[in-house]
Amino acid sequence: MNKVLKSYFYWTYPRGSFHYDVMVTLILLFIFVTPHLWNYHDKASSAAGPSHPIQVVSDGSHGLLVTVDGSDLVVPTTASENEVRKMMRKAIEPVTGDAVSVVRWETAVDPQGNRVWKIWARR
Prior knowledge:
With 123 residues, the protein is α+β, with helices and mostly antiparallel strands. It has helices at residues 2-10, 18-37, 81-96; strands at residues 55-58, 63-69, 101-109, 115-122. It folds into two domains: 2-37, no CATH class; 55-122, Alpha-Beta Plaits (2-Layer Sandwich), CATH 3.30.70. It contains three helices and four strands, in the order H-H-E-E-H-E-E. The chain has a four-stranded antiparallel sheet with strand order 1-2-4-3. Strand 1 and strand 2 form a beta hairpin.
């Protein structure tokens, strides 16, 4: 039994043999079955994404300046500051990832005359 385990560990069986096929099957099972059994804490983006491009540039220090089109981010006037911050973070998450915090924001007008949000964020 010890010899069999050792040969499995060091993969000494020739290709096409019974033991080789068992090992390949176990590896494939691990690859395709474990995502259904364990939570790897990865998540697919459920949002459809913005309809306009999002521009991301460095703010000159250790942060990001993210420009989002006004039609992609509609903020109700009755929203609290925390609600607005959450909406901003959710809007920029597809390009910045979920490890950012929104520092501040303001509205502006782009060269074409469209309303945009300028959002400063930190990683």
